[in-house]
Amino acid sequence: LKLPCAVQAMYVQAILKVFVHVGSNLLVSPEAEGEAEELEEDQEEDKMTDEEKTAVVTELAQLILTHIGQYANSPDPEVVERACQLKAVVRQCVPEEEEGEEMSVNAEDLRRLFATLGAIIEEELQPVSGKAQFKIVPPEDLKV
């Protein structure tokens, strides 16, 4: 891609957030999020089985894995780091094949994964102040 590295890094981070949001909306029970009353009507209309929901998440994960390689090979270390983290998360949603047998992903495992990731992504991160950074003594063998 010919985008600036900062834009690529934000793009990869946005892919992760969208993936987690879609997975959470499909798999995580609304009771866990405290929105049961609002989503009861939506659930009546949405009668996808766990297998269908898992298949959607798996297909989206495979699509991301297909295209994330271009970011993992970026010259910018921040883009590479985010792309590798995204790859690691997304691989948790793709079943592994063993000796020609196609394996499936457990819907309950995916629910736990997306519930955890959703909670992490929703949390607003605060930057560490410069004064606090100087209070931490770097290791002697660290070469910057």
Describe the structure.
- The chain has 144 residues and is mostly helical.
- The protein has one domain.
- The protein contains eight helices and no strands.
- It has helices at residues 5-27, 30-33, 36-45, 50-67, 69-72, 77-91, 107-122, 130-135.
- The longest helix is centred in the first third of the chain and has 23 residues, at 5-27.
- It starts with a helix and ends in a 9-residue tail after the last helix.
- The model is unreliable at 32-37 (pLDDT under 50).
- Residues 31-51 are annotated as: Disordered.
- Belongs to the adaptor complexes large subunit family.
- It is found in: Endomembrane system.
Short description:
With 144 residues, this protein is an all-alpha fold. The chain has one domain (5-135).
Protein structure class: mainly alpha
Tally of strands: 0
**Domains counted in the coordinates: how many?**
1
Percentage of residues in helical conformation: 55-70%
Mean pLDDT across every amino acid position: 81
H/E series, N to C?
A: HHHHHHHH
* Largest sheet report: none
Give unreliable regions as ranges. Answer: 32-37
> In percent, how much strand structure appears in the residues?
under 5%
Shape: globular
Q: What is the tally of helical segments?
A: 8
